[in-house]
Design brief:
This protein folds into 2 domains: 256 residues, Ribonuclease Z/Hydroxyacylglutathione hydrolase-like (Metallo-beta-lactamase, Chain A); 36 residues, no CATH class. 27% of the residues lie in helices and 25% in strands. The chain is built from 10 helices and 16 strands. Strand 14, helix 10 and strand 15 form a beta-alpha-beta unit. The longest helix has 15 residues. The radius of gyration is 22 Å and the shape is globular. The mean pLDDT is 93.
Length: 309
Amino acid sequence: MFEITFFGTSASAPSIRRGLPSQLIKHEEHRFLIDCGEGTQRQILKSGVGFKRLNKILFTHGHLDHILGLGGLLSTILHWESMDEIEIYAGGMALERIHDLIYKVTFRGTQEPLPIHLIEIQEGPIFQTDDFQITAVPVSHRGTGCFGFVFDENGKRPFLPEKAEELQIPIGPWRKDLVMGKVVTLPDGRQIDPDLVLGEHRRGSKFVYIGDVGKTSNLIETCRKADTLVIEATYMENEKDMAKKFGHLTAMDAAKLAAEAGVHQLVLTHLSRRYREKDVLQEAQSAFENVTIAHDFDVLQVRRTETSV
């Protein structure tokens, strides 16, 4: 299961109710900040999430509304939090701006308190554990080096306790090893193959985050059967030409992508102050029913849906 906390859901400039783009993705003990718009550290504090273990920051691209909060956040984290290092992931052009923000502004003339690793993103896996992986996906926005991120939980075979009871397998380390796919020898000498107590393989949850993006035709397979897709909806169809000019989507564009890719839930973010929220939602729901609009401080859990294949 992945958990998303939205810190900023506005487009380009903050509004009274919406901060600039930033969100936290959690899986077990791992935490990833995606983007860091101006005011992000205050939003983190206000949410109650705090800075603990917030040492991996992913950037969709290098536009100022997505990176300007990084200087203040790093200054706070590196001076007050107990961390060994900070890892920052971004495309090449974004890293150039981020480098300048860190070393020519935030820590100009001083040594940063902890190592900061700037990691250039390439298409493909960028982070992996035994339980999940994160894949970077190129997207079309303004300029090069813009990315979305796919969070894929590893699949597993569910343990069938009724089968274990039938085989009189004691509760203890033997069951744990069977869950891990190991053949076990019971105290009575019997050998048990895990196939006897494990069900059919089920894929894990899939979460896709797409920031600023101007077209969706190359994202259908990326989003295919996602349990949750979070994506921008900066414009509405009545200003589709402007959306195209600035490399953004309309709410309708996002909804059509969700429908074609067969996602379970669509969450719209990066909303412009120029529209009423209910109008954005209505436009999207005309093409895809299961749509919600993200608000600052919303918390969303992404689980494998039963309809997923």
